[in-house]
Specification:
Distance between the termini: 59 Å
Structural class: alpha+beta
Strand order of the largest sheet: 3-1-2-7-15-10-13
Helix content: 10-25%
Strand content: 25-35%
Radius of gyration: 22 Å
Order of helices and strands: HEEHEHEEEEEEEEHEEEE
Shape: globular
């Protein structure tokens, strides 16, 4: 075989091989990286922003709540129970959080603002978010590390990612082991900057939100959409 022709064939085969590998790698990474269907923007300080007073939500005992993106109240009884919640309107929830000085014993209100939140990651509960749902926390602050007290999971069959947003101050998101490591002095977890807006984080293992010396009114949102 002519040497020039042989070199041409060899280079051609190699080029197509590299293209194939590149395309395969792109597909793999695309599958691993979640889409961002909504524009990322900082949160307001109002946990009820954009919600009508008559919209029904799952009110959780700590004062936070789960809301559907489409504004519906189509929550199953089982889903409400697994989140330790009750159904109520946004108006009812606002009134309850203003009147009730303590909710689940893990926070204290003063004119609607939470002064204290869990100082350690131990003894946490769980929250499950179905597709099209978001959890909005009540504002909180305090000194030292403050932990959400809840591990968030995407509901079965909805993928492994949840979108996290911090408002008021920066925070971190980590699994229970990372939260405990941080509590013991070894910083761990994914940084969540308030200025960045939404960040998708793999949450199949159950993730917590935590922040250090948070500015009063700091809150977070977890979304499954």
């Amino acid at each position: 075989m002519d040497k020039k022709y042989f070199r041409f064939i060899t280079k051609t085969v190699l080029a197509f091989s590299l293209i194939g590998v590149s395309a395969l790698s792109s597909n793999v990474f695309a599958a691993e990286k979640p889409a961002n269907p909504l524009p990322s923007k900082p949160l307001s300080n109002d946990p009820y922003e954009g919600l009508k007073d008559n919209q029904v939500v799952i009110a959780c005992p700590e004062g936070g709540f789960i809301v559907k993106k489409d504004g519906s109240s189509n929550f199953s009884k089982e889903h409400v129970e697994e989140n330790d919640g009750v159904l109520m309107t946004v108006k009812e929830l606002k009134q309850q959080n203003k009147k009730d000085p303590t909710v689940s014993g893990d926070k204290l209100f003063n004119n609607g603002i939470t002064l204290f939140r869990g100082p350690s990651p131990y003894g946490v509960s769980v929250r499950y978010l179905a597709n099209g749902e978001a959890y909005r926390s009540e504002p909180f602050s305090g000194s030292g590390w403050r932990f959400s007290g809840y591990r968030f999971y995407p509901a079965s069959g909805t993928g492994g990612y949840l979108a996290w947003t911090s408002s008021g101050d920066d925070g971190r998101v980590g699994d229970l082991g990372q939260a405990i490591s941080t509590y013991k002095g070894s910083l761990a977890g994914t940084a969540l900057y308030a200025r960045e807006g939404r960040k998708y984080i793999w949450s199949q293992n159950g993730m917590l939100y935590y922040t250090f010396n948070p500015v009063s009114g700091t809150r977070y949102v977890v979304e499954n959409w």
